[in-house]
Amino acid sequence: MDLPEEVVDDLRKRLRRIGGQIQGIERMLEEGRECRDLVTQISAANRALERTGFRLVSAGMEYCISNPDKAEAEGYPIDEVEKMFLRLA
């Protein structure tokens, strides 16, 4: 599936930010921070990862709707993209 470059850039930026969050959580563990603080940060990283997945699937749906024949030929019929969306939901 051909995703627009701006979508790929956005996804990569989001993933780098999430990576920073994960590193921050590891530092918090090393520092012996409170459990509630760790859970808050883990929850935030989890939400950010979910939003990244939804952004990817949203771009995929746009692609499939705009290019249905090409998307299907590439192995992404709209029902498959819908299944990917439901896996995230």
Automatic annotation (TrEMBL):
<dbReference type="InterPro" id="IPR003735">
    <property type="entry name" value="Metal_Tscrpt_repr"/>
</dbReference>
<dbReference type="GO" id="GO:0045892">
    <property type="term" value="P:negative regulation of DNA-templated transcription"/>
</dbReference>
<dbReference type="GO" id="GO:0003677">
    <property type="term" value="F:DNA binding"/>
</dbReference>
<keyword id="KW-0186">Copper</keyword>
<dbReference type="InterPro" id="IPR038390">
    <property type="entry name" value="Metal_Tscrpt_repr_sf"/>
</dbReference>
<dbReference type="GO" id="GO:0046872">
    <property type="term" value="F:metal ion binding"/>
</dbReference>
<comment type="similarity">
    <text>Belongs to the CsoR family.</text>
</comment>
<dbReference type="Pfam" id="PF02583">
    <property type="entry name" value="Trns_repr_metal"/>
</dbReference>
<protein>
    <recommendedName>
        <fullName>Cytoplasmic protein</fullName>
    </recommendedName>
</protein>
